[in-house]
Amino acid sequence: MANGFFTDTTLCIGCKACEVACKQWNQLPADGYALTGMSYDNTGSLGATTWRHVAFIEVPESKKRLPMASTAPVTQPPVPSANGDNNTGPGALKFLNIDGDGGASLQIGFPDIGQWLMMSDVCKHCTNAGCLQACPTGAIIRNEFGAVYVQPDICNGCGYCVPSCPFGVVALQHDDGRAYKCTLCYDRQKDGLEPACAKACPTDSIIFGNLDDLKMRARQRVADLHSRGETDAYLYGVDENTEVGDLNAFFLLKAEPEAYGLPQAPTLPQNRVGRGYLAGLAMAAVLSVFSAISLRRSQH
Amino acid sequence: MLGLISSLFAAQNGPVGSPAVPQEARKGRRKKRNLSAQTEFTSYYGRPVVKKPHWVWPIWLYFWAGGISSGASAIATLAHFYGDKDRDKSIVQAGRYISMAGVIISPVLLIIDLQRPERFVNMLRVLKLRSPLSTGTWILTSLGILTGLNTARQVVEDGLVPENTLPGKLALLSSNDVTQFLQGLDGMALGTYTGVLLSATAVPLWANADEAIAPLFLSSAFSTGAAAISLAQAVSGVKADDLHRLDPVEQYAILAELASLGYAYFKLTPEVRKHVIASPFTKSFLAAVWLGMLGPLILKFISPKKGLPGRLFAIIRSLMVLIGGFFLRYAVIEAGKATADDPDAYHSITRGPARGTPEEQARKYSNGRERPFGKGRSTPEQQPNSFQSNNHADGNEGTLPQGNPQDSQYPGSQTR
Ligand code: SF4
Ligand code: SF4
Q: What is the CB neighbour count within 10 angstroms for residue B40?
């Protein structure tokens, strides 16, 4: 029975409660006040002391329509905007139809301020995990909850798992020398508690649970969004047939994976091992034959 | 424009394990991927997607020294079995000593590189064939033992330890043709695994060059190993007549290096190739090619063969190959680290099959009224996890599941 996360980015409000809860529970040190200067994202990326990372993607003004609750064309009532009768261009109002029960409907006008995409990133606990397969000490294991777990008492800080993760998750902690990443709150799960981030998430953007249930729920959610006209919603990390397999922490996204700093089709680094050895040893055989011939021929 | 270029490469760089997606579907995706954000995002604020390894000088040196040791082991073995018993004795002799020096230095460098050096023995608690670092640890360990045995014999044969003492007898007893043969094989494995170690990561340059790196490092191991042996021969006053016998080996290795490098170069996507041809490491790559490959090849044809000038030129050529070999390791590692910091490079090698247009997406998630996957994908039957729920008679579609998961009415419960 594997557990995992379903992170529904359409519900994320960017409050970073997950980041804080994770740091608190796992007693991770602060990363300092490093402002990225690009958005509200001042964490930057996942790392040895950052196991949840909320990404903020600002979709510029007028580049994005607000979602419409009904698919019927909205007739815009003549609402005066701030600067007179200007109803188009920047500063114009956008309208959202909310259909209530019994035919009642409510129309709300919004100023066009663009849109934020927010996503709480985390270790994906891949089905075929690059970090796990790369680890030469066997420090990285899959635990009884289906999570990919680094055993700190075995890791010797070789750092090979770091470039072997196709998502750039696991990292070495400099003062300590070992590799760290999300444990899927191994300790909490042992006590029958859900991980701290999922517990703290106020909008249930992060849901923790049995993977089969989560996947079904996620597919329903996408179908639901599609039926409401949000046809850009899709699931990242399930039903995708990539080399890393289904992700135990998967996401509902609304833009290209690249926008969130995720690869479209991650590859499993270890799938290149066989080819590499074959090519290298073939070259060794060729060079050996040529060398042997040349050594033989120059005898006299 | 960049997107267009990368889309050309997308078709070639799809994941190997993915099902065959018809060209049509792939092209279609690139053209009309109108996920609602009308701005095309190419990365998350240009931030790195994958993390680079922490490797610095110990690893540059280790790859270089390990390569020399690997080549020296292989060449000593080839000379032992195929060489002239008298004239190639110095090759075997120098090869054994050089590879011994290499396998003493290499583990030290590797352990220095560990962030928890005192725990290096943890590497020896498992053997994982899919982890090149694990395999490599065992290759290095066994090569250390084999080289030690054969070098001990060499020490006795050279008269440094008398034959009739106990250590001398033991050395002669424990080393023979079999251990020499195994040392040669193990040496080649050492040169190969350092390349696989790189290609089996998510670092764009290494992952993209893929199966080209191992032959590149292996042939570089041969050329630097041959150069190290020739250098030892030239400075230790081996007879001029026996001096140039490894030159053809070195030249074959250099040609193989050039071929591997060219093959790697043409495998790279434009976004990755940029880091080879127009980056701070371009000079190092050029140094590797000119000092380590083209230079010595050209010099071979113009250098005198006989006498002291011949010996001097042999020394110069060997030094060039050795220095070039170091630059090759340095450039491949450092340029690789630079590509890991470049999200465009990583995205260019991880483009995959279509996620589909909004219409296809809607169909995929439309509660199983149609097949959830497009034509290019495998059928739902082949995909145990794919969503194909019961045809809802309960009109429940488009809402969150209600009820008890154990309940057979629970949507999708029949998929498991
Ligand atoms: S996301 Fe990276 S660190 Fe997490 S399980 Fe997958 S490979 Fe390992
Ligand atoms: S750093 Fe630790 S966890 Fe990562 S591969 Fe090395 S030994 Fe394994």
A: 13
Give dist(CA B242, CA B245) in Å, integer.
6
Complex ipTM value: 0.84
pLDDT digits (tens, 9 = 90+) for B268-291: 999 999 999 999 999 999 999 999
Query: Cα B339 from chain centroid?
Result: 15
Atom 2 of ligand 2, nearest CA residue: A155
With a CB-CB cutoff of 8 Å, which residues 77-116 of chain A face chain B?
none
pLDDT single digits (tens) B71-105? 999 999 999 999 888 888 899 999 999 999 999 99
Whole-model pTM: value is 0.81
Mean pLDDT by 10 residues, chain B (416 residues): 39 36 37 42 90 94 96 95 87 94 94 90 91 95 95 91 88 90 95 95 94 95 95 87 86 95 93 92 94 92 81 92 96 95 93 69 58 35 37 37 40 35
For domain B57-343, the CATH superfamily is Formate dehydrogenase/DMSO reductase domain (1.20.1630.10)
Question: Contact B50/A168, CB-based, under 8 Å?
Answer: yes
Q: Classify domain A3-60+117-260 by CATH architecture.
A: 2-Layer Sandwich (3.30)
| 3-state per-residue secondary structure call for chain B | CHHHHHHHHHCCCCCCCCCCCCHHHHHHHHHCCCCCCCCCCCCCCCCCCCCCCCCCHHHHHHHHHHHHHHHHHHHHHHHHHHCCCCCCHHHHHHHHHHHHHHHHHHHHHHHHHCCCHHHHHHHHHCCCCCCHHHHHHHHHHHHHHHHHHHHHHHHHHCCCCCCCCHHHHHHHHHCCHHHHHHHHHHHHHHHHHHHHHHHCCCCHHHHHHHHHHHHHHHHHHHHHHHHHHHHHHHHCCCCHHHHHHHHHHHHHHHHHHHHHHHHHHHHCCHHHHHHHHCCCCHHHHHHHHHHHHHHHHHHHHHCCCCHHHHHHHHHHHHHHHHHHHHHHHHHHHHHHHHHHCCHHHHHHHCCCCCCCCHHHHHHHCCCCCCCCCCCCCCCHHHCCCCCCCCCCCCCCCCCCCCCCCCCCCCCCHHHC
Q: Which of B43, B51, B385 sits opposite A258 (nearest CB)?
A: B43
| Nearest-angstrom CA–CA distance, B83 and B77 | 9
Tell me which residue has its CA closest to atom 2 in ligand 1: A165
The CA distance from A260 to A241, in Å, is 20
- Residue B34's nearest CA partner among B361, B286, B260, B323 is B361
Inter-chain contact B347–A38, Cβ cutoff 8 Å?
A: no
- CA-CA-CA-CA dihedral for A222, A223, A228, A233, to nearest 10: 30
Handedness of CA A177, A182, A185, A189 (dihedral sign): negative
Q: Which of A131, A151, A246 to mutate to test the pocket of ligand 1 (most atoms within 8 A of CB)?
A: A131
